[in-house]
């Protein structure tokens, strides 16, 4: 494994804060559907800087989730390049990409994706266990992350004992527990009312400031777009400005 993969870049050496976290160059992605090739992404260029809140907007079917999956290393582009922390994501093996993803990326989904039988505390702890964080650090890190999202008092509640907004905040605590440098959130507020959506956005802003994480999210909500550092608008697999 390449030496840069063995260590967690952001915590083991001083990061070059001016270098981009992620650079996407000329990404295309097509799918074979029956006998037809469906071209979904048609040449995407983007850059995510550190500690930014970046949003993707676009109509249903424009390709937002397809792009998020590529950025998060869940899928491979048909052509083009993705550099994560300066290193060529597109040239990595599946194992290498999985390794980087576990160390450096956190995911948040529209539907929260919590383990239903585990408490808030246990859900966050599970993320640390999966990331290989030493057990001695679990308790304090779990407490810290739940405090960041304002749920210290709900630690022992299971998902069904929490509101939708609270469940999404547990999901955020879970996604940032292993100190990723990038948080990807696909329509994180779509299932919430506007007040809970606003709470999620304020949690995002505070974790960008305190955890030095970059958040890239998709949304359809125009009021949410207002707080972005940058908005990419996607139309039919391309960005328009
Ligand atoms: N694995 C796949 N195989 C074939 N087609 C796919 C696949 N994944 C996505 N697509 C197609 O790519 C297009 C873009 O899908 P994508 O999920 O990226 O859109 P989106 O912008 O996230 O939409 P929404 O706002 O509804 O979530 C759609 O037409 C979809 O049917
Ligand atoms: Mg989508």
Automatic annotation (TrEMBL):
Pfam families the UniProt entry points to: ABC_tran
Keyword RNA-binding: no
Alphabetized InterPro entries for the sequence: AAA+_ATPase (IPR003593), ABC_transporter-like_ATP-bd (IPR003439), ABC_transporter-like_CS (IPR017871), ABC_transpr_LolD-like (IPR015854), MacB-like_ATP-bd (IPR017911), P-loop_NTPase (IPR027417)
UniProt cross-references to Gene3D superfamilies, sorted A to Z: P-loop containing nucleotide triphosphate hydrolases (3.40.50.300)
PROSITE patterns reported for this sequence: ABC_TRANSPORTER_1, ABC_TRANSPORTER_2
Molecular function (Gene Ontology), one example: ATP binding
Residue runs in coiled coils: none
Ranges for domain ABC transporter: 22-240
Alphabetical keyword list: ATP-binding, Nucleotide-binding, Transport
CDD domains linked to this entry: ABC_MJ0796_LolCDE_FtsE
Protein name in the entry: ABC transport system ATP-binding protein
Organism: Paenibacillus eucommiae
